[in-house]
Amino acid sequence: MTVMLIMVVIVIYNNVVGGSTGTRMQVNNGGARINGTIERIDP
Questions:
Q1: What is the 3-class SS of 1-43, one letter each residue?
Q2: How far apart are CA 42 and CA 34, in angstroms?
Q3: Cβ contacts of residue 19 below 8 Å, gap of 6+?
Q4: Which of 5, 12, 23, 25 is the one with CA 20 to 30 A from 32?
Q5: What angle in degrees, to the nearest 10, is found between the helix axes of 23-41 and 2-17?
Q6: pLDDT in tens, the chain (43 residues)
Q7: What's the superkingdom here (predicted)?
């Protein structure tokens, strides 16, 4: 029972964080946008 619960948690975590619309990619894209903004401001 515990093993099944752990497996479900891992699958849910991978679905939320991974993929092209996951939080990891969203944070990465947000960081790239902020970096571009800073580069435009810095002469």
A1: CHHHHHHHHHHHHHHHHCCCCCHHHHHHHHHHHHHHHHHHHCC
A2: 12
A3: 25
A4: 12
A5: 30
A6: 889 999 999 988 888 888 777 888 888 888 888 888 888 886 6
A7: Bacteria
